[in-house]
Amino acid sequence: MEITLFEEKDLLACTNTFMEVFNQEPWNDEWTKETAKNYLEDFTRTPGFKGIVAFNEEKMIGFLFGTLKHWWSGDEFFINEMCVVADKQNSGIGTMMMNVLIKELESDGVSMISLLTDRGIPAEDFYKKHGFSEIERLVFLSRSM
After folding, report:
1. Residue 104 lies in a domain
2. Is the pLDDT of residue 115 over 90?
3. CB atoms inside a 10 Å sphere around CB 19
4. What DSSP designation does 8 have?
5. What is the pTM of this model?
6. Looking at the domain assignment, is residue 144 inside a domain?
7. Rounded to an integer, what distance in angstroms lies between the CA atom of residue 21 and that of residue 29?
8. Residue 137 lies in a domain
9. CA–CA separation, 64 vs 50, rounded Å?
10. pLDDT tens digit string along 29-58?
11. Distance between CA atoms of 60 and 54, rounded to whole angstroms?
12. Could you tell me if residue 27 is inside a domain?
């Protein structure tokens, strides 16, 4: 297995992996190749973007995308997306990607990692196991148009 920093050539593999993961349980999204590619490509074009990819031989098995943001209390990295293919979940790949990310961010002097995730799905427990905690003072809001 190889875990490295994202390169532009990895975008198609990330797109396919993203659709494979999020178009099934528990999310049941309806991503097409075009919408998924556009969604992920937007992150790669954002200033401060950093991605981590995991390959098993030639097959992508997971990735993590996020953005470095400057904040008054120190630079913060916001995880936008992270996924591991279903048959490789709970095998340590997410942990390995997170460890590579943490090492990268520590060398960059980043002081915090933050993210949003759904309640009650395996991702919530994964992040809490890796030292993330809820911020009680924040409320996530949305509005349909």
Report:
1. yes
2. yes
3. 19
4. G
5. 0.92
6. no
7. 9
8. no
9. 8
10. 999 999 999 999 999 999 999 999 999 999
11. 6
12. yes
